[in-house]
Amino acid sequence: ASEMAFWYSIVHGVVRPIRDHLGERPAPRGGALDAALGRVQHDVLDPFLVGPAVLSLVAEATRAQPLFLVIDDAQRLDDASAIVRCR
After folding, report:
1. Could you tell me how far CA 73 lies from the centroid of its own chain?
2. CA distance 33 to 49
3. Is the torsion defined by CA of 68, 79, 85, 43 positive or negative?
4. 59 closest CA partner among 21, 29, 30
5. More confident residue, 1 or 65
6. Residue 21 gets which letter from DSSP?
7. What is the distance in angstroms between the CA of the first residue and the CA of the last residue of the chain?
8. Which of 33, 38, 58, 68 is 20 to 30 Å from 24 at the Cα level?
9. Separation CA 8–CA 79 (nearest Å)
10. How crowded is residue 35: how many other Cβ atoms within 10 Å of its Cβ?
């Protein structure tokens, strides 16, 4: 529940195990993901670009090895991460 106060805390949790695949991401999605992760400063962050950026990162990571992703207690997602839903 304490993570609900931090924007993109679930995105951080998803990306942490596959951070080796971050590298340079194409704009504008890459910039949005970098901003959500606090890797760069931003004035205005479009949360709807973060979802596709996370999805492409996960897809890239699955090329190297299988990936099983589970989000437990989804009702406790922070608002910013909830917008990121990758469908």
Report:
1. 17
2. 8
3. negative
4. 21
5. 65
6. G
7. 24
8. 68
9. 8
10. 20
